[in-house]
Amino acid sequence: MEPIRIIRVAQGKNSTLSHLYIGGLFACYLLEDSVRPEKIPGITCIPEGEYGLSLNPWAGMNARYAPKYPKLHRGMVEITEIPNYQLVFIHIGNYHTQTAGCPLTGSYWQLLDGDYQVLHSAAAYKYVYPLLVGEMEKGNNRVVVENRF
């Protein structure tokens, strides 16, 4: 089974642009905070490594996503087992200021004033969410995060 992968491809001043691969295929862009040698809460992306994936139906973000996507939402896709991080979700957003350490989905990207942004985030989320849930249901509940810049 091909692991789910987050491949980081470019860094901005305060942002990191990544690609999400599911089943070996490009699924969407991701926007993350900066790569830092030491964690600064809320403004550092998760370190390279292999982590778990699970559905989190109890965290506060569910209150926004369940009514917004009633036919889709079964819980937030959470990246787990990250040392010194908790409640890291793949979710919607456009700017590094909206990540708080979480990967944000995007259909395409742009570089503006030295930082990356992702756009059409909701469309990308609606596409990748059922793919990620399907992979987890098949037992593919690991994600590999790699820096390639």
Question: What features would you describe in this structure?
Answer:
The chain has 149 residues and is an alpha+beta fold. It has one domain (4-147). It is built from two helices and eleven strands. The protein has helices at 62-68, 121-137; strands at residues 4-11, 15-22, 25-33, 49-56, 76-80, 88-89, 91-92, 104-106, 108-112, 115-119, 142-147. It has a nine-stranded mixed β-sheet, covered by helices on one side. Strands 9-10 form a two-stranded antiparallel ribbon. The longest helix has 17 residues, at 121-137. The model has no long low-confidence stretch (mean pLDDT 96).
Short description:
The protein is of the alpha+beta class and about 150 residues long.
Count of the domains: 1
Main sheet overview: 9 strands, mixed
Question: Structural class given helices, strands, pairing?
Answer: alpha+beta
What is the number of strand segments? 11
DSSP strand (E) fraction?
A: 35-45%
- End-to-end separation in angstroms reads 26 Å
| Structural Rg | 14 Å
**What general form does the structure show?**
globular
Chain-averaged pLDDT:
96
Strand order of the largest sheet: 6-5-4-11-1-2-3-8-7
Order of helices and strands: EEEEHEEEEEEHE
| Total count of helical runs of at least 4 residues | 2
Low-confidence stretches: none
Roughly how much helix do the residues carry, as a percent range? 10-25%
InterPro entries: DUF5675
Protein name: DUF5675 domain-containing protein
Domain DUF5675: 6-131
Label this structure with key terms.
149 residues, alpha+beta, 9-stranded mixed sheet, two-stranded antiparallel ribbon, 2 helices, DUF5675 domain-containing protein, DUF5675
